[in-house]
Design goal:
It is built from eleven helices and eight strands. It has 258 residues and is an alpha/beta fold. Helix 2 crosses helix 4, helix 6 packs parallel to helix 8 and helix 8 packs parallel to helix 9. The structure holds 3-methyl-2-oxobutanoic acid. 3-methyl-2-oxobutanoic acid binds next to strand 6.
């Protein structure tokens, strides 16, 4: 049976930590799902991670739909969260709902995620009112990179921390089922986690969140650049290079194919 958003709230109440991962394709989603991870995010990070773009901003709805559908086919049990790309939820609440419906109806997502707090609370409430679960995302919000002036830790001053707390509460008030807290001081993430009934899922926000999310290629060691907040559990890039060389050697020697 598929994990329900209410199961995540129960995990928070029971003090059970939630492990979440991103996935962008069918085989990876299938493997992650088989391991019992309850939340798989098809993040717009795919723009950088699998498409080689410089930021998440050029990622379009069509690109997201393509990857969300692949992940949804691979994940039979996890909640599949489809990221709403830049520009698909800012124009109006109606536009946000129209695009969220596409991710669920055409992509097969269970839920959607969007970036921002108070500024997007109206859009969140509209989407939730249609029956689509919404995950919030505050702190370092990569779609705002040009306004933030880079990928920097957020909420370091007292007033910035207050604004993030207000964002978190606005999202909860609008009906989100969980909130991603990205790159903020651990103490602030702990306070937000305590203030909310819905689970917080941290990335670069310390150990006190209700759960953690990592970009799958970071934990697998597939990329050359590893962000500070990521943990590389294995270096698959070296293993893949070794396999490719072994294969090429066998072909070159004429020993492959016997
Ligand atoms: O796009 C993404 O992968 C994300 C996670 C890092 C939370 O938003």
């Amino acid at each position: 049976m598929r994990v329900a958003i209410h199961d995540l709230k129960k995990m928070k109440s029971a003090g059970q930590k939630i492990a979440a991962l991103t996935a962008y394709d069918y085989p990876t989603a299938k493997l992650i799902d088989e391991c019992g991870i309850p939340v798989i995010l098809v993040g717009d990070s795919l723009g950088m991670v699998v498409l080689g773009l410089e930021s998440t901003i050029p990622v379009t709805m069509e690109v997201m739909l393509h990857h969300v559908a692949a992940v949804a086919r691979g994940a039979k049990r996890a909640i599949v969260v489809g990221d709403m790309p830049f520009g698909t939820y800012h124009l109006s609440a109606e536009d946000a709902l129209r695009n969220a419906i596409r991710l669920v109806q055409q992509g097969g997502a269970t839920a959607v995620k969007l970036e921002g707090g108070v500024a997007v609370a109206e859009q969140v409430a509209k989407i939730v009112s249609s029956g689509i679960p919404v995950m919030g995302h505050i702190g370092l919000t990569p779609q705002y990179v040009h306004q933030l002036g880079g990928y920097k830790v957020q909420g370091k001053t007292a007033s910035a921390a207050e604004r993030l707390m207000a964002d978190a509460k606005a999202l909860e008030g609008a009906g989100v089922f969980s909130v991603v807290l990205e790159c903020m001081p651990s103490q602030l993430a702990a306070e937000i986690t305590k203030a909310l009934e819905v689970p917080t899922i941290g990335i670069g926000a310390g150990p006190h969140c209700d759960g953690q999310i990592q970009v799958v290629s970071d934990v697998l060691g597939l990329s050359d650049y590893i962000p500070k907040h990521a943990k590389q559990f294995v270096k698959l890039s070296d293993i893949i290079r070794g396999v490719v060389k072994d294969y090429a050697d066998e072909v070159a020697k004429g020993t492959f194919g016997h």
